[in-house]
Design goal:
The protein has 9 helices and 7 strands; from the N terminus they run αβαβαααβαβαββαβα. It has 231 residues and is an alpha/beta fold. The strands form 2 sheets. The protein has a 5-stranded parallel β-sheet with strand order 2-3-1-4-7, sandwiched between helices. A two-stranded antiparallel ribbon has the order 5-6. Bound molecules: BIS(adenosine)-5'-pentaphosphate (AP5) and magnesium ion (MG). The site of magnesium ion (MG) has 4 residues, from helix 2. Magnesium ion binds next to helix 2.
């Protein structure tokens, strides 16, 4: 964290949490919202993939878990994520994508925020039935440079195979193979539901129909946080 008095920094930050299973649209919505609201997009999966690509110790430690569709242990994940949340890039606030994903992570986050006089403003739970999720992930292409997700049918790039934002050739993710997707759903949905329950007790969860077109989901998120900026 910084040396500033904690109360100063906490007062203004808008912290939103996107929750949803594999392929629910967290990354898609976080990319759009981060532009609309001027908030940094912090995605634990993207951070792990960047660490893997850079060959860091953290990346190597995460590799086996990610390849097996399992959650990376809390002690590695919490430390990595808190460091990102404390950076100046998050001074205006942040859209959290994929963290917290266990109740242990949620408690660690709540405690860190509370110590700075902060809290999560809203939790947006994007609900999508499993059969749709599997199809979505099968058609997904990602920009390895900036992390923007595309879909070959529902959200194709303007130029086939290249990112709209930086022109980088798109790739499919190693953990999007069908057997890993099944493992991700089996192992990661139960702890995710426990996180939703944790925040439901605080009365800050909005459940959104994630089967709607991308723009409709964005509109639903913006109306649940009471913001219409850019719309
Ligand atoms: P992570 O990268 O977070 O993967 P995930 O949670 O499985 O989620 P995805 O990124 O697959 O889906 P998404 O919801 O972002 O969907 P997207 O917007 O791309 O995590 C990867 C791994 O890292 C984990 O398995 C774990 O090992 C580890 N990890 C990460 N965080 C961790 C944590 N906190 N603790 C422990 N381990 C952790 O959309 C999917 C597709 O659908 C795209 O093609 C998109 O174009 C399309 N689409 C999106 N919205 C719509 C729509 N409304 N209609 C039609 N198509 C749509
Ligand atoms: Mg994602």
């Amino acid at each position: 964290m910084t040396d500033e008095p904690v109360a100063d920094r906490g007062a203004e930050r808008l912290i939103l949490l996107l929750v949803g299973a594999v392929g629910a649209g967290k990354g898609t919505q976080a990319t759009i919202l981060s532009r609309e609201l001027g908030l940094v997009h912090l995605a634990s999966g993207n951070l792990f993939r960047a660490a893997l690509a850079a060959g860091t110790e953290l990346g190597e430690a995460a590799r086996g878990y990610m390849e097996a569709g399992e959650l990376v242990p809390d002690e590695l994940t919490i430390a990595m994520f808190m460091e990102e949340l404390a950076r100046p890039a998050a001074d205006a606030g942040a859209i959290l994508d994929g963290f917290p994903r266990t109740v242990g992570q949620a408690r660690a986050l709540d405690d860190t925020l509370a110590a700075a006089g902060e809290r999560i403003r809203r939790v947006l739970y994007i609900e999508v039935p499993t059969d749709i999720l599997v199809r979505r992930v099968a058609g997904r292409w990602i920009c390895p440079q900036c992390g923007t997700p595309y879909h070959e049918d529902t959200d194709p790039p303007r130029e086939a195979g290249r990112c709209d934002r930086d022109g980088t050739p798109l790739r499919q993710r190693d953990d999007d193979r069908p057997e890993v997707v099944r493992a991700r759903l089996d192992k990661q949905v139960p702890p995710m539901l426990a996180v939703v329950e944790h925040y439901e007790r605080a009365g800050i969860v909005d459940r959104l129909d994630g089967t709607q077109p991308i723009e409709r989901v964005t509109d639903a998120i913006l109306s649940s946080i009471g913001s219409r900026s850019g719309h």
